[in-house]
Amino acid sequence: MDFENNIEIGIQRYLDGDMDPGAQREFEERLQSDPEMQNQLESYKTLIKGIRFQKRNEAWDLVAELETEAQEKRTRSRGGKKTLKFLLVAASVLILFLFLAILYNGLKIGGINDRLVAEHFEPYPVLANGPVRGGDNLESLKERAYLAYGAERYEEAITLLTRLVDEQYDVYDAFYLGNAHLASGNYMEAIGLFQELAETDILLKVQTQWYLSLSHLGNNDVDRAKAIFTEIGRSDTSYSDKATQILNNL
User: Of 31, 108, 131, 191, which shows the fewest CB atoms inside 10 Å?
Assistant: First the structure.
Protein backbone atom coordinates (compact mmCIF):
# COMPACT_ATOMS: atom_id res chain seq x y z
CA MET A 1 0.00 0.00 0.00
CA ASP A 2 1.26 3.51 -0.83
CA PHE A 3 1.28 4.94 2.71
CA GLU A 4 2.97 8.15 1.59
CA ASN A 5 -0.13 9.26 -0.32
CA ASN A 6 -2.75 7.53 1.86
CA ILE A 7 -1.39 7.94 5.39
CA GLU A 8 -4.68 9.04 7.00
CA ILE A 9 -6.62 6.24 5.30
CA GLY A 10 -3.94 3.78 6.35
CA ILE A 11 -4.16 4.89 9.99
CA GLN A 12 -7.95 4.62 9.99
CA ARG A 13 -7.85 1.12 8.50
CA TYR A 14 -5.15 0.06 10.97
CA LEU A 15 -7.09 1.27 14.02
CA ASP A 16 -10.31 -0.27 12.69
CA GLY A 17 -8.59 -3.65 12.19
CA ASP A 18 -9.52 -3.46 8.51
CA MET A 19 -6.14 -4.45 7.02
CA ASP A 20 -5.20 -7.81 5.59
CA PRO A 21 -2.16 -9.43 7.28
CA GLY A 22 0.27 -8.35 4.55
CA ALA A 23 -0.80 -4.70 4.61
CA GLN A 24 -0.74 -4.69 8.42
CA ARG A 25 2.84 -6.03 8.49
CA GLU A 26 3.90 -3.40 5.94
CA PHE A 27 2.18 -0.67 7.95
CA GLU A 28 3.80 -1.73 11.24
CA GLU A 29 7.26 -1.99 9.64
CA ARG A 30 6.89 1.55 8.29
CA LEU A 31 5.54 2.71 11.65
CA GLN A 32 8.61 1.48 13.55
CA SER A 33 10.98 3.53 11.41
CA ASP A 34 8.85 6.65 10.84
CA PRO A 35 8.49 9.00 13.87
CA GLU A 36 6.23 11.30 11.84
CA MET A 37 3.84 8.44 11.22
CA GLN A 38 3.95 7.47 14.92
CA ASN A 39 2.97 11.03 15.88
CA GLN A 40 0.02 10.98 13.48
CA LEU A 41 -1.14 7.62 14.81
CA GLU A 42 -1.07 8.84 18.42
CA SER A 43 -2.88 12.04 17.45
CA TYR A 44 -5.58 10.06 15.70
CA LYS A 45 -5.99 7.87 18.81
CA THR A 46 -6.47 11.00 20.89
CA LEU A 47 -9.13 12.24 18.48
CA ILE A 48 -10.99 8.92 18.60
CA LYS A 49 -10.89 8.96 22.39
CA GLY A 50 -12.57 12.37 22.44
CA ILE A 51 -15.29 11.27 20.02
CA ARG A 52 -15.92 7.99 21.85
CA PHE A 53 -16.66 9.44 25.26
CA GLN A 54 -18.46 12.58 24.04
CA LYS A 55 -17.89 14.37 27.30
CA ARG A 56 -17.87 18.11 26.88
CA ASN A 57 -15.17 19.00 29.39
CA GLU A 58 -12.97 16.03 28.53
CA ALA A 59 -13.32 16.65 24.83
CA TRP A 60 -12.50 20.34 25.11
CA ASP A 61 -9.40 19.36 27.09
CA LEU A 62 -8.45 17.12 24.19
CA VAL A 63 -8.91 20.00 21.76
CA ALA A 64 -6.58 22.09 23.90
CA GLU A 65 -4.12 19.20 24.04
CA LEU A 66 -4.12 18.87 20.26
CA GLU A 67 -3.68 22.62 19.77
CA THR A 68 -0.88 22.77 22.34
CA GLU A 69 0.88 19.86 20.71
CA ALA A 70 0.54 21.53 17.32
CA GLN A 71 1.95 24.78 18.69
CA GLU A 72 4.91 22.98 20.26
CA LYS A 73 5.66 21.24 16.99
CA ARG A 74 5.39 24.53 15.14
CA THR A 75 8.06 26.11 17.34
CA ARG A 76 10.51 23.23 17.70
CA SER A 77 10.23 21.25 14.49
CA ARG A 78 10.91 22.34 10.94
CA GLY A 79 10.38 18.88 9.41
CA GLY A 80 7.04 18.05 10.93
CA LYS A 81 4.74 19.93 8.59
CA LYS A 82 2.56 16.88 7.88
CA THR A 83 2.06 16.14 11.57
CA LEU A 84 1.39 19.82 12.32
CA LYS A 85 -1.23 19.97 9.58
CA PHE A 86 -2.80 16.73 10.83
CA LEU A 87 -2.99 17.98 14.42
CA LEU A 88 -4.66 21.22 13.38
CA VAL A 89 -7.14 19.36 11.19
CA ALA A 90 -7.81 16.88 14.02
CA ALA A 91 -8.55 19.69 16.47
CA SER A 92 -10.85 21.36 13.95
CA VAL A 93 -12.72 18.11 13.30
CA LEU A 94 -13.18 17.53 17.03
CA ILE A 95 -14.53 21.06 17.53
CA LEU A 96 -16.97 20.55 14.65
CA PHE A 97 -18.04 17.19 16.08
CA LEU A 98 -18.68 18.71 19.49
CA PHE A 99 -20.79 21.48 17.98
CA LEU A 100 -22.91 19.03 15.97
CA ALA A 101 -23.20 16.62 18.90
CA ILE A 102 -24.41 19.39 21.18
CA LEU A 103 -27.07 20.40 18.67
CA TYR A 104 -28.14 16.79 18.10
CA ASN A 105 -28.36 15.88 21.77
CA GLY A 106 -30.06 19.06 22.89
CA LEU A 107 -27.13 20.24 24.99
CA LYS A 108 -27.21 16.96 26.90
CA ILE A 109 -23.44 16.34 26.71
CA GLY A 110 -21.82 17.04 30.03
CA GLY A 111 -25.10 16.59 31.93
CA ILE A 112 -25.16 14.87 35.28
CA ASN A 113 -26.33 11.53 33.88
CA ASP A 114 -23.67 11.40 31.17
CA ARG A 115 -21.00 12.42 33.66
CA LEU A 116 -21.98 9.73 36.13
CA VAL A 117 -22.03 7.04 33.45
CA ALA A 118 -18.65 8.14 32.15
CA GLU A 119 -17.16 8.20 35.64
CA HIS A 120 -18.44 4.80 36.71
CA PHE A 121 -18.53 2.75 33.53
CA GLU A 122 -15.65 0.38 32.93
CA PRO A 123 -16.11 -2.30 30.25
CA TYR A 124 -16.05 -5.73 31.83
CA PRO A 125 -12.67 -7.33 31.10
CA VAL A 126 -12.35 -10.46 29.00
CA LEU A 127 -11.79 -13.30 31.45
CA ALA A 128 -8.49 -15.17 31.42
CA ASN A 129 -10.27 -18.41 30.65
CA GLY A 130 -12.32 -16.79 27.90
CA PRO A 131 -12.34 -17.51 24.17
CA VAL A 132 -9.22 -19.21 22.79
CA ARG A 133 -7.98 -19.95 19.33
CA GLY A 134 -10.12 -22.57 17.68
CA GLY A 135 -10.38 -24.45 14.46
CA ASP A 136 -13.94 -23.98 13.29
CA ASN A 137 -15.43 -20.83 11.85
CA LEU A 138 -17.48 -20.02 14.95
CA GLU A 139 -14.43 -20.16 17.22
CA SER A 140 -12.48 -18.00 14.78
CA LEU A 141 -15.31 -15.46 14.81
CA LYS A 142 -15.39 -15.55 18.61
CA GLU A 143 -11.65 -14.96 18.79
CA ARG A 144 -11.83 -11.96 16.47
CA ALA A 145 -14.79 -10.56 18.41
CA TYR A 146 -13.02 -10.68 21.76
CA LEU A 147 -9.75 -9.39 20.36
CA ALA A 148 -11.64 -6.37 19.01
CA TYR A 149 -13.42 -5.94 22.36
CA GLY A 150 -10.17 -6.15 24.31
CA ALA A 151 -8.58 -3.58 21.99
CA GLU A 152 -11.55 -1.22 22.57
CA ARG A 153 -12.61 -1.43 18.92
CA TYR A 154 -16.21 -1.56 20.05
CA GLU A 155 -17.95 -0.99 16.72
CA GLU A 156 -16.08 -3.95 15.26
CA ALA A 157 -16.79 -5.98 18.39
CA ILE A 158 -20.51 -5.15 18.11
CA THR A 159 -20.63 -6.44 14.54
CA LEU A 160 -18.82 -9.68 15.37
CA LEU A 161 -20.56 -10.36 18.68
CA THR A 162 -23.94 -9.74 17.07
CA ARG A 163 -23.12 -12.43 14.51
CA LEU A 164 -22.12 -14.79 17.32
CA VAL A 165 -25.32 -14.18 19.26
CA ASP A 166 -27.44 -14.60 16.14
CA GLU A 167 -25.72 -17.80 15.03
CA GLN A 168 -25.41 -19.52 18.40
CA TYR A 169 -26.78 -17.65 21.40
CA ASP A 170 -24.56 -17.61 24.46
CA VAL A 171 -25.32 -15.50 27.54
CA TYR A 172 -21.72 -14.38 27.91
CA ASP A 173 -21.42 -13.30 24.29
CA ALA A 174 -24.63 -11.30 24.85
CA PHE A 175 -23.16 -9.85 28.06
CA TYR A 176 -20.05 -8.56 26.27
CA LEU A 177 -22.19 -7.33 23.38
CA GLY A 178 -24.15 -5.26 25.90
CA ASN A 179 -20.89 -3.86 27.23
CA ALA A 180 -19.75 -2.92 23.73
CA HIS A 181 -23.05 -1.13 23.07
CA LEU A 182 -22.82 0.71 26.39
CA ALA A 183 -19.23 1.74 25.63
CA SER A 184 -20.45 3.13 22.30
CA GLY A 185 -23.36 5.05 23.85
CA ASN A 186 -25.99 2.73 22.33
CA TYR A 187 -28.09 2.74 25.49
CA MET A 188 -31.31 1.24 24.12
CA GLU A 189 -29.47 -1.72 22.57
CA ALA A 190 -27.58 -2.26 25.84
CA ILE A 191 -30.80 -2.12 27.86
CA GLY A 192 -32.43 -4.77 25.68
CA LEU A 193 -29.50 -7.15 26.10
CA PHE A 194 -28.94 -6.64 29.82
CA GLN A 195 -32.67 -6.77 30.62
CA GLU A 196 -32.94 -10.17 28.94
CA LEU A 197 -29.79 -11.39 30.71
CA ALA A 198 -31.10 -10.21 34.08
CA GLU A 199 -33.96 -12.67 33.70
CA THR A 200 -31.60 -15.64 33.18
CA ASP A 201 -29.36 -17.61 35.53
CA ILE A 202 -26.16 -15.93 34.32
CA LEU A 203 -23.39 -16.10 36.93
CA LEU A 204 -22.57 -12.43 36.37
CA LYS A 205 -25.93 -11.43 37.84
CA VAL A 206 -24.83 -8.38 39.81
CA GLN A 207 -22.58 -7.20 36.99
CA THR A 208 -25.52 -7.47 34.61
CA GLN A 209 -27.68 -5.38 36.96
CA TRP A 210 -24.89 -2.83 37.28
CA TYR A 211 -24.54 -2.35 33.54
CA LEU A 212 -28.33 -2.35 33.11
CA SER A 213 -28.66 0.48 35.64
CA LEU A 214 -25.90 2.47 33.91
CA SER A 215 -27.66 1.95 30.58
CA HIS A 216 -30.93 3.28 32.01
CA LEU A 217 -29.08 6.25 33.48
CA GLY A 218 -27.40 7.01 30.15
CA ASN A 219 -30.84 6.80 28.54
CA ASN A 220 -32.13 9.36 31.08
CA ASP A 221 -34.51 6.88 32.70
CA VAL A 222 -33.48 7.93 36.19
CA ASP A 223 -36.32 6.19 38.05
CA ARG A 224 -35.47 2.75 36.67
CA ALA A 225 -31.78 3.37 37.21
CA LYS A 226 -32.39 4.38 40.83
CA ALA A 227 -34.47 1.27 41.51
CA ILE A 228 -31.69 -1.03 40.33
CA PHE A 229 -28.93 0.99 42.02
CA THR A 230 -30.89 0.76 45.27
CA GLU A 231 -31.12 -3.01 44.95
CA ILE A 232 -27.41 -3.26 44.23
CA GLY A 233 -26.63 -0.93 47.14
CA ARG A 234 -28.30 -3.39 49.51
CA SER A 235 -26.26 -6.31 48.21
CA ASP A 236 -23.09 -7.61 49.81
CA THR A 237 -20.95 -7.13 46.71
CA SER A 238 -18.13 -4.93 45.45
CA TYR A 239 -20.72 -2.91 43.49
CA SER A 240 -22.64 -1.85 46.60
CA ASP A 241 -20.54 1.21 47.41
CA LYS A 242 -20.44 2.28 43.76
CA ALA A 243 -24.23 2.14 43.52
CA THR A 244 -24.62 4.10 46.75
CA GLN A 245 -22.20 6.74 45.51
CA ILE A 246 -24.23 7.23 42.32
CA LEU A 247 -27.49 7.40 44.27
CA ASN A 248 -26.00 10.16 46.43
CA ASN A 249 -25.38 12.17 43.25
CA LEU A 250 -28.84 11.74 41.73
Answer: 108
